[in-house]
Specification:
Elements lengths: L1 H28 L2 E8 L5 H16 L3 E8 L2 H12 L6 E4 L7 H5 L32 E2 L1 E4 L2 E5 H6 L8 H13 L3 E4 L5 H17 L1 H8 L8 H15 L5 H4 L3 H9 L3 E6 L12 E2 L15 E5 L2 E4 L7 H14 L2 H11 L2 E2 L16 H7 L3 E2 L8 H16 L4 H14 L1
Parallel strand pairs: 1-2, 1-3, 7-8, 10-13
Antiparallel strand pairs: 3-11, 4-11, 5-10, 5-12, 6-8, 6-9
Helix pairs in contact: 2-13, 7-8, 7-9, 7-15, 9-16, 15-16
Length: 420
């Protein structure tokens, strides 16, 4: 009888242990789900590197289920806004630190300081400078980038007996030569609003006011009605009056200007440093924006550390989900992913990568170009509220259409800035 009781007790114990083991095993095998939104499409270098990086992460972390989507240009911003406005799950997304492209995150209450999720010592000096009122950083930047590069089609210039223009006056003369040859001097995405902040406005406010003035604008220690912005708006209008910007420019979206340049239709193209990865010409050069009359900071350019990845605030409400999101953020902004971006997109890493970095052909001059700038102006709209950025970015098109004057646009922008 005693033996029978002992056997029964052992069986119960084994069943209990087995039940506990099965329960624990089920818990540990349960995946944490993250929803991720990347930037790019399969045909672009940005898209290719994102797919490689997210797939590498999935392979290395089978305990984390990744549901990801990837959109490019305006489709990305529409997807981001719709997802957040609809209250759908979104844990990690490609993100800007401020401006109109960050506004949906702020509006949805998903903004959270990203500095708590990474080790600052792993990043280059200045990479993690926050744009929030209290120094918060709302995205961990992938790279240090030039935001206004004047690419030249060197073969076309040589064919027309020209060399790279270094002054605005030279550009005007070359415009006449280009027109006579059935070409255009400048390919520029005039129909795409955000480009006017990222390119012409920010480089010109730096030229007329210096890098510190842009920082003062961002800190609200300076005004859009101050001379540097008014002069920038005046010069932007002059580009249209002089025929550098045309009616066709106003109809060119972000893809059209690249096609014009790659098809040999333009002497120059103004775009960001990231665009070099999509230039198909075999003979092109990175150049500074031409010298302009009245500039106080010759040779300066705009850019710096901006877009990267961010965790949404709602992703931090559950410990397991938060841990998984942090792991993904650190991977996407870390060494391995940075090397992939350099290879496919030519991005100069913000992360301190050990050893040699292999860059995509044609993008190798990026670091040298950035170093050649006399000073680097912050791209103003990347650090202020989206409503103000949209006001002056859309206003550039109004300048070209003649529906607003430079002074009126400056006053309108300042009024909106004070209200936000």
């Amino acid at each position: 009888m005693k033996i029978r009781n002992v056997v029964l007790m052992l069986m119960v114990s084994l069943l209990t242990i087995g039940s506990v083991f099965a329960s624990n095993n089920a818990e540990t095998s349960e995946k944490v789900k993250l929803v991720v939104l990347g930037y790019g499409d399969a045909s672009t270098p940005d898209g290719k590197q994102f797919v490689i990086n997210i797939e590498n992460f999935i392979k290395a972390n089978p305990e984390i289920e990744i549901e990801w989507d990837m959109q490019y240009d305006e489709l990305y911003h529409q997807k981001l806004q719709a997802t957040l406005a609809g209250g759908e799950q979104l844990d990690v997304a490609f993100m800007w630190n401020g401006g109109s492209r960050h506004q949906p995150v702020l509006d949805a209450g998903e903004e959270i300081d990203q500095l708590q999720f990474v080790d600052p010592s792993n990043f280059h000096d200045g990479a993690l400078a926050g744009g929030g009122k209290n120094g918060e950083l709302f995205s961990i930047p992938n790279a240090k980038q030039a935001h206004t590069v004047m690419y030249s089609n060197d073969a076309l210039l040589a064919e027309l007996g020209l060399t790279v223009a270094t002054t605005y006056e030279e550009l005007l003369k070359q415009n006449e030569v280009a027109k006579a040859a059935g070409k255009i001097a400048l390919a520029y995405p005039g129909a795409t609003s955000w480009c006017h902040n990222t390119f012409v406005y920010s480089v010109l406010v730096g030229r007329f006011g210096g890098a510190q003035h842009a920082k003062d604008l961002i800190a609200k220690k300076a005004k859009f009605t101050d001379a540097p912005t008014v002069k920038a708006f005046e010069f932007i209008k002059r580009m249209y009056d002089d025929g550098i910007v045309t009616e066709n420019t106003l109809q060119a979206d972000y893809g059209v200007s690249l096609a014009q340049f790659n098809n040999g239709e333009a002497l120059y193209m103004i775009d960001g440093g990231w665009r070099a990865a999509q230039v198909t010409l075999t003979n092109f050069t990175w150049n500074k924006f031409v010298a302009v009359p009245g500039e106080v900071a010759p040779g300066s350019g705009n850019g710096g550390y901006s877009a990267g990845y961010a965790i949404m605030k709602s992703a931090t409400t559950e410990p397991a989900r938060k841990a998984a999101a942090v792991k993904l953020l650190q991977y996407l902004t870390g060494e391995e992913a940075s090397k992939v971006r350099a290879l496919y997109s030519g991005q100069v890493p913000s992360f301190k990568v050990k050893g040699a970095i292999e860059y995509k052909q044609g993008t190798e001059p990026s670091a040298a170009y950035i170093s050649s700038l006399s000073s680097i102006t912050d791209t103003v709209g990347d650090y202020i509220d989206g409503t103000t950025t949209a006001t002056f970015s859309d206003g550039v098109i109004e300048l070209w259409l003649g529906t607003i004057t430079p002074q009126e646009l400056a006053e309108k922008t300042q009024k909106v800035y004070e209200e936000n």
